[in-house]
Amino acid sequence: MATLHLISCNLTLHPEIAQQLQQALSADDALLFMAQGIYTLLTMPLSYSQAMYILTSDIMTTGIQPPPTVTAINYGQFVELGARYERSLSWN
């Protein structure tokens, strides 16, 4: 079952959550970094093979430039992701 993982905490500050996330991921999953979760992109080496996204509103608010492996999306695309994946999990 493909899952959209909503990451709203900085995984660097919560290694136990990062470990649980790593164990929960499957090949067809995707990760959306949002809110405080976007700081993970700055402080943690990302070795995920899954699709990764960030909200453009968070980029504009913080000025963070995501790595090229992370796709910026708007709220409409966020809704489309929610419809595409069979379930979503919030990590906070």
Describe the protein.
The protein is an alpha/beta fold. It is 34% helix and 25% strand. The protein contains 4 helices and 5 strands, in the order E-H-E-H-E-H-E-H-E. The radius of gyration is 12 Å and the shape is globular. The relative contact order is 0.28. The model has no long low-confidence stretch (mean pLDDT 93).
Strand content: 25-35%
At the fourth level of CATH, the homologous superfamily is: DsrEFH-like
Broad structural category: alpha/beta
Nearest-integer average pLDDT:
93
Which geometry do the CA atoms define?
globular
Q: How far do the termini sit from each other?
A: 21 Å
What is the count of β-strands?
5
* Count of discrete structural domains: 1
Low-confidence stretches: none
Major beta-sheet overview: 5 strands, parallel
Number of contiguous helices: 4
Evaluate the radius of gyration: 12 Å
Question: CATH class, anyone?
Answer: Alpha Beta
Sketch the topology as an H/E string, one letter per element. Answer: EHEHEHEHE
Based on the structure given, which CATH architecture is correct?
3-Layer(aba) Sandwich
Range of helix content: 25-40%
